[in-house]
Specification:
The protein is flat. The protein has a domain of about 160 residues. Helix 3 runs antiparallel to helix 4, helix 5 packs antiparallel against helix 6 and helix 7 runs antiparallel to helix 8. It is mainly α. The longest helix has about 45 residues.
Length: about 325
């Protein structure tokens, strides 16, 4: 199979993955819709009111809702696995077509990043039971894959600055950290939603859709652990492998290029989050907000700098 055929195969696989993940996202959202029937309590009846359903009927509806919700969760997970497998095939075919590591430009970074997000999610589903983040993860990946079309470039060789094994090391570490940042941001956002509901109406977090989420303490702990894993990986990518690569490509380790500046800003925000969370006992809402600020700086580094700022890293576009 020649390079052109491999590139076409990659495009088909990525498009198919986007469809599978979009359907998975719909399944996860439908799971939440049926979850309302499972945990929403019956409203109290006034004296003389005629009940709309007997207790056995209500219990039957709840059981049917639980069964449907569980089936939809399984469908969503299966579609996520399928989407990840198709993305892996697309990334592999792209690499073979280009004859190099398949993350030499923004399009390839987006596709590979979506794959890593899916893989991190699937690993944590098996190890930590985070299926409740399925709609967030699949929705994010579908958005990334959809937007990647806007920056699509044909498979081909990279510019001389990227012709280094540090491309594999530096970008691979950044992609891995980014995949974990997505999951950590999702957990932090879910924490804020449930915490706000419980603060406004005590006990509301145990009913309806919010009842399907773990306890706020569990989500806060998950976010911290994921970020504690991602932060040293990002540090290695941005402050160790990146400067070494810059020295080989441009003859200096650090030049305050916009991409370097925002990578450092991301490092500082997440360092502040982990330091406050670990030493000052700063948990809950403040920590979750700071984690989301860190994720916003990461996204801007990936999208905003490439599209709107430029600099020496503009070749990544």
């Amino acid at each position: 199979m020649n390079s052109e055929a491999l590139a076409q195969l990659s495009n088909v696989a990525v498009a198919s993955a986007a469809i599978a993940l979009a359907l998975g996202c719909v399944a996860y959202l439908a799971e939440w819709a049926f979850a309302r029937e499972v945990t929403t309590p019956r409203e109290p009846m006034h004296v003389g009111a005629v009940p709309s359903a007997t207790p056995s009927t209500a219990a039957s509806r709840a059981a049917n809702g639980a069964s449907r919700s569980d089936r939809l969760a399984g469908i969503g997970l299966s579609l996520t696995v399928l989407g990840a497998a198709l993305l892996a095939a697309g990334v592999l075919a792209r690499g073979l077509a280009a004859g190099r590591a398949p993350w030499g430009n923004m399009y390839e970074f987006a596709v590979t990043g979506a794959l890593v997000v899916c893989l991190v999610y699937l690993v944590l589903v098996a190890r930590a039971g985070i299926g409740w983040l399925g709609s967030v993860v699949t929705g994010f990946c579908v958005s990334v894959l959809g937007l990647s079309i806007l920056v699509y470039v044909p498979a081909g060789p990279v510019v001389p600055a990227l012709n280094s094994y540090w491309l594999v090391v530096h970008v691979a570490a950044a992609v891995l950290a980014g995949g974990a940042f997505v999951v950590g941001a999702g957990a932090s956002a879910a924490f804020l939603v449930k915490e706000r509901a419980e603060r406004r109406s005590p006990g509301s977090g145990q009913r309806g859709v919010l009842g399907r989420l773990p306890a706020t303490e569990a989500m806060d702990r998950l976010a911290y652990r994921v970020h504690a894993f991602a932060f040293p990986v990002w540090t290695f990518a941005a402050l160790i492998a990146g400067p070494i690569w810059a020295q080989a490509a441009w003859g200096r380790y650090w030049g305050w290029d916009p991409k370097e500046v925002w990578a450092f800003i991301t490092f500082v925000v997440y360092a502040g989050y982990l330091h406050a969370r670990a030493t000052a006992g700063w948990r809950g809402k403040g920590a979750a907000v700071l984690a989301l600020v860190g994720f916003a700086t990461f996204l801007f580094n990936f999208v905003g700098v490439n599209l709107f700022v430029g600099g020496l890293h503009s070749y990544a576009f």
